[in-house]
User: What shape does this take?
Amino acid sequence: MTRVFREDLESSFGTRAVHAGQRPDETTGAIMSPIYQTSTYVQEGLGRHKGFEYARTRNPTRDALERNVAALEGAEHGFAFASGLAATDAVLKLLSAGDHAICGENVYGGTHRIMTQVFERLGLRFTFVDTRDVATVEAALTASTRMIFVETPTNPMMHLTDLAAVGALATDRSLLLVVDNTFATPVLQLPIELGAEIVVHSTTKYLNGHSDMVGGMVLTTRDDVADQLGFLQNAVGAVPGPMDCWLALRGTKTLHLRMARHDASGRRIAQWLSQRSDIQRVYYPGLPDHPQHELACRQMRGFGGMISVELGSPARARAMVEQTRIFALAESLGGVESLIGHPASMTHASVPQPMREAMGLTDGLVRLSAGVEDPDDLIADLDQALAVANRV
Assistant: This one.
């Protein structure tokens, strides 16, 4: 089990981002955590070792990443996994056959897929609800409910969950509240402070921030949950390699700097889009006309770089995503480069079409991930792509 150094929780965010979970290498004094590219460790004798036996169980580079992200989230324990879905898989394995979980209806398509096509087959039950309404969450509770799983903001509709309210509900019913904090990151939102007991990340996205590795992370404040997660991490073995851990750890050092730029560009682009007559709707919690703008101001410290826009037709959406020159048409998000995508056919293709349409995720929806390029160039790129879409 990787527990955060206590002193790392006492410094400011920027200092933790650079230093938390790491110490200069004792052998050489190297200021950066080494990449411990090893599968096993020589033991001093039977039952005598230096805390490391086999790299699936522990790796010093992975330990450093786990402590670092735990410190950023204000958690006691961190567990790194080979992907965001591997992290979600571990969290769902905290449940047993017959247990019931409530999940936000607008979550990442892979989250919906693993719940409905993998874990339902193994005896878990899921109810997908609009978690913007706490009363709707409460109405979905059953005697066998053990977990509430939410994203906020959601992917890609930018719905928010009142974490304090849902956290209070989970505490009253002794339920695990799990929050996917990938979009907001701990720079903009701290779910644990608002009542969550488990936080999940795709470290592929903002935490790494450079689109050069795939990984996931689970953070928790509870020792008993950490014991279970540590067992699952070792028993199942869906762990990242040391190079991927090192890349993510490099990324977290500049997370607070990058998120400031993502947030500033996201606000500018969303405001510009909202003033255009050829855009039917802009989904961005930083806009004053977003239905949950007040909640966003209350529980977040910024609004981030993710924006979704409704163009009204699949043809216009296709034309836009295929014509951008700086925004690259690709899966994923949160990198230094700007990306554009079509959720209905890409990230959320596995979600049944009636469910997509019921939540407003139409074939005319386009999702933007604003990178750290000059925002004027990004706006100009979107302007010329929309000009093409308007001729369709």
In short: The chain has two domains: 6-252, 255-389. The chain has 14 helices and twelve strands.
